[in-house]
């Protein structure tokens, strides 16, 4: 079910805000998405993070909406979508994404997916028929932050449950979403140019991270519980099996381990790849450059 919220103050990309009510196991969850422009549709999927929101896709939406109809989604548990206290896991999103696509588009659609969203787009591309006409994977990742750091699974699981717990969990989450800490994390591996981390931008990120129920999905992401693949081998195997036209965009300043995974996918046969300035947030920080590269690829669908 879709409800249009025209001229909503909740607009994040300057378009029309809509809702998709997704029913799973007799529970209904409210997903927020936004449409801007006219023409052939393109789905924009933001990266998973503590501050994940379709707002990070605004730059791309602005640059693509002159030629395409862009549809930007807030993932369940993130952004303005519902943030229920549920078990956030890969199966949930592997069911959600194709359900949303089937309800929203009447034919295969091009997808631009960042970070972990790219991993989920790759997973969904295995379905027959494939719901994608083309895929753009921007700084594709499959490992959550603590997994990248090498934290053992039992410890990651304990951290997730601690953050989910009442009282102390909220306190820990509050410490890790303080504006100063968010800015520090952005400077470490999300943005390259610290001058772009303006007070206004960081305030927007802080507001995203402090919505009611905000800690549950990010706790799963940070601890690796939302990783779309279980191993490098699975990541590469799925990459090899892709039959849909695929482009990979790599940020030159991405963290070494994440960049190595991006390069491994980019080197597979049949995959087009480009390198740009930027790190894990290049889809937001370098929207001009990303749009310039992906526009020709997305045309002639």
Summarize the structure.
With 301 residues, the protein is of the alpha/beta class.
What does this structure look like?
With 301 residues, the chain is of the alpha/beta class. 41% of the residues lie in helices and 20% in strands. The chain is built from 13 helices and 9 strands. A 9-stranded mixed beta sheet has the order 1-2-3-5-4-6-7-8-9, sandwiched between helices. Strand 4 (40-45), helix 1 (58-64) and strand 5 form a beta-alpha-beta unit. Helix 1 (58-64) packs across helix 13, helix 2 (90-104) packs across helix 3 and helix 5 crosses helix 6 (168-176). The longest helix has 15 residues, at 90-104. The two termini are 27 Å apart. The relative contact order is 0.15. Mean pLDDT is 92; it is low at 1-7.
